[in-house]
Amino acid sequence: MFVMAETAARIKKARIDKNLTQMNIADALGVSYQAVSNWERGNSMPDIGKLGELSDLLEVSIEDLLGHSKDSRNIVKVMQKENLEDWDISLSELSDISPVLPPDVTEQLAERLKARDVKELSAIAPFVDREVLEQLGEGLKAESLEDLVAIAPFVGKKALEQMWNGQQAKDVEELSMIAPFVSREMLEQLGEGLKAKSLEDLVAIAPFVSKETLEQMWDGQKAKDVEELSMIAPFVSREFLKKMF
After folding, report:
1. In a domain, 163, yes or no
2. What pTM value is reported for the model?
3. Domain ranges, residue 112
């Protein structure tokens, strides 16, 4: 896996060794000054289309910039246009190098692989199309609700519900994290019997459950002021609202 802070330090050192400014690099590569600054801060990585130019400009190898690892060697393979069908690469290794790969290369490699678990699937999720991702995750079950939350923004409701392994949320706060991505029916199963630890947690889950379920989650907390009461007001009955004040 690339450690962005270490790559950032290598880029900065190589630039200083060549007595170049960040603006010199930006002008030579046709990128913004902010892009180069972000590379050296470890906020982002140069994409594969710029790595070769950056390497030539700084007169260092790709491995010297990215670190001498299997990840950097895999990047060099892509740059040299080696036959991707011959690659022996795992999905985990692919997710490590995907931040600098073109999406079509990532997907071409990913389509030949199978995720071992939902956690591994969520690592590659930002880099491939939803259809490819759901194909990779076919038949998988999440080991925890945390894993399910991590993959939730990247797959459809149907795929997400198929990955659910019957876990219940440990509290209303965790329930609210998965709430925007699942059906109300599944959400109420996930939160069965839960009580909110605070009125803030109750407000967070309120748009996603029925009035009846929301009232069952209430644990007797009182609103501290009218402003807090107004946040929960659209989601509960008038009679129930009076109990909270």
Report:
1. no
2. 0.75
3. 91-154
